[in-house]
Please model this.
Amino acid sequence: MNMLNIALPKGRLGEKVYDMFEKAGFACPSIKENNRKLIFENEACGVRYFWVKPSDVAIYVERGAADIGVAGKDILLEYAPDVYELYDLDIGKCRMAVAAKADFCDDPRRTLKVATKFSNIAKNYYDSLGRDIDIIHLNGSIEIAPILGLSDVIVDIVETGTTLKENNLTVVETIVPISARLIANKANFKFKNTQIEQIVQSIAAQTGGKK
Amino acid sequence: MMTPQDTVLKKEEKVIFALRSLYARYGYSQYKMSKFEEYDLYVQSKDFLLSDSVITFTDRNGKLMALKPDVTLSILKNGKDAPGCVQKVYYNENVYRVSGGTHMFKEIMQVGLECIGDIDAYCLYEVLRLAAGSLATISERYVLDVSHLGILSAVLDSLSVPESSRKAIVKCISEKNMHELATLSAAAGVGAEGTELLKQLVSLYGKPEDVLPRLRDLLGGKIDSALLDEFGNVLGAFSGSEFYDKLRVDFSVVHDIGYYNGIVFKGFIEGIPSGVLSGGQYDKLLQKMGRKAGAIGFAVYLDLLERLGETEAPYDADILLLYANDTDLHTLSEAVQSLAADGSSVMAQKEIPEKVRYKKLMKLTKGGVETV
Model:
């Protein structure tokens, strides 16, 4: 049987998404066992799940190792993988925003120093405004960059805003809302179309049909 | 018994031979070109190229040259318009592009064809048929997705979608991204009914016999019926052929609408994660180059065929024949010839090399060839 390969993001979001797939008729009970396995298979349902780092899901799908997967819109915007974006799951919601110290005032005569993990999103956003920027690519603890004078602003994901608040930062501008998206490999979509459409239709029904 | 062609040639090499003979059977002649072109050629049509980056160097006469990132522009540059005639050529060339995944330059071997001139329905059908035939040459398990950019553009015109929003909307269509398509079209001033029309157009996917009637129901009276007729006629001409079952109508196949105007298509092979064939009608590119002709063509990306999981030969040689430093050259040569006479591959070595896989180990001694 032609197995459907699904890449799930490790963590709470992935577990929530698995429940949606289970309801769509692609159950794999062994995935709920508490162990360190990363690949789970249910031949009867013709499905194979694997847990991967959330930022890697798009790569697995683009390269065809997974037929479908669930990735945040932030990752899709940053890496622009060549995949179908089939459905907005409307979960894992947050926003990509520009944040700065509360007393920040943008001086257009100076190059704006932007610290971020999302260099492409920051570049595209400021290109659209015609603003000259200097991107400082960081891999974590972005919030401290403006406090230490490393950057003027940061571009990062904001969920509740608590981390920003605790570091005396405020949101200056929202760039784009973010949520989890169901993505599919373009070639495998053709050859496993029935199974993939079944999942999309079922998830649409589960989430109120917002397609 | 397997011929040397079966065992020695790689999948891509066998495919090249088969495709060249397929195209030649339809009267396409081979077009050979230089590896380099003047960089100017690409500056004028930069958006037509699949990647922005081009490898450039300065020639000894001071001209800025490029390693060709594309074949079509080189062919168009040299052609002449002849009303009523069609130039039919195929090529087998290397191009140099940045690969999407690695962001590094890559040498990509392409086989493809171009049909340039007075393009009529038969030309469209023939090129589409050769595209399907090319895929069938590679594998039985293929799909050829076909769309019509003239229809898509006419729908966008009928909904008065402003030019500034088209690029983003077309990108959503190419991703089958309905949720953002709805948001963007609403922001572009398209009403709820128009947005629904776009969503339905993108969600159409399937065999021509299922999709074409639904397409007529959806767009009849809303756009120029000649476009629907052209699309229906070309796809309908496949009815009853071996390829008909492999065609899928899919409006998410979009190439740059600044260059392509009519039928566009993309071919997929099961087991290869991205499209292996891409093509379409690009009359607008010719107009931009000042030519009064139409054109349609496609390219097959042979580098992707490596991924087809061809079973690797389990042995480097059937027989590994060991000989000594003082072995007579004539005796050794005769021993190799006689062992290879039944079609076996024979590797002659003085010592057993590391990592060499062989079926049988033999040794040439003074008494003759012995199995070890």
